[in-house]
Write a structure and sequence with these properties.
The chain has about 200 residues and is mainly α. The chain has 9 helices and no strands.
Length: about 200
């Protein structure tokens, strides 16, 4: 469970950083070659202002919801694959456990975690120039369209993964059967020797 939570947190953090980096104008080679010196280091307030201008909190929340839906769908498919006779109650319990895990991820914590990263890589002067772009009409249009582009991209990714899941599970089962033949034989034997209820 802890490993799963850590994976979700890493995905969320890396996705938020990717979003900000993809939408920001490219820095000049001279400014991107080295980390800013302490005197030109962006303050926490500078970074928060930048993140607010980019609506990063809203974006992270939307990404979390999108990831949650995709991962829940994948989890349900995997659960059904491993337990084809799962009852509705068992599926409901599995999805409930999944939902509980996601409540532990806090957007505020994720934002606090990425502030030092921006301070390390982007100078105060560069941050101000990038912020000026996002406050321009073009930057505002880009920000306005970003949620829709992200949602559509995530949906395309989900559709692609859903189409590939059966083949992935089939290959996984074949490899598991080859690597652990005894493990595959045990469940089959238990099914044939199960007593019939009267």
């Amino acid at each position: 469970m802890k490993g799963f939570l850590l994976l979700c947190a890493v995905l969320l953090c890396s996705s938020s950083l990717t979003f900000a980096q993809q939408t920001a104008p490219a820095a000049s080679p001279a400014t991107s070659a080295k980390a800013p010196v302490e005197s030109d280091r962006a303050s926490r307030e500078d970074v928060l202002k930048y993140l607010d201008a980019l609506h990063v909190r809203r974006t992270m929340d939307q990404m979390m919801e999108g990831m949650k839906k995709q991962m829940k769908a994948g989890m349900v498919e995997g659960f059904k694959h491993k337990l084809p006779d799962a009852t509705p109650e068992q599926l409901a319990k599995a999805t409930s456990l999944f939902d509980d895990v996601f409540t532990e991820i806090n957007t505020d914590e994720m934002i606090e975690a990425i502030i030092p990263i921006y301070q390390e890589h982007i100078s105060k002067a560069d941050l101000q120039q990038v912020l000026a772009f996002y406050q321009s009409p073009v930057g505002q249009r880009l920000l306005a369209e970003q949620p829709a582009m992200m949602q559509e991209s995530m949906q395309r990714g989900a559709d692609l993964m859903k189409a590939k899941l059966p083949d992935i599970f089939k290959k996984l089962d074949e490899r598991l059967a080859n690597e652990f033949p005894d493990r595959q034989a045990a469940p089959a034997a238990s099914k044939t020797t199960r007593p019939v209820s009267k």
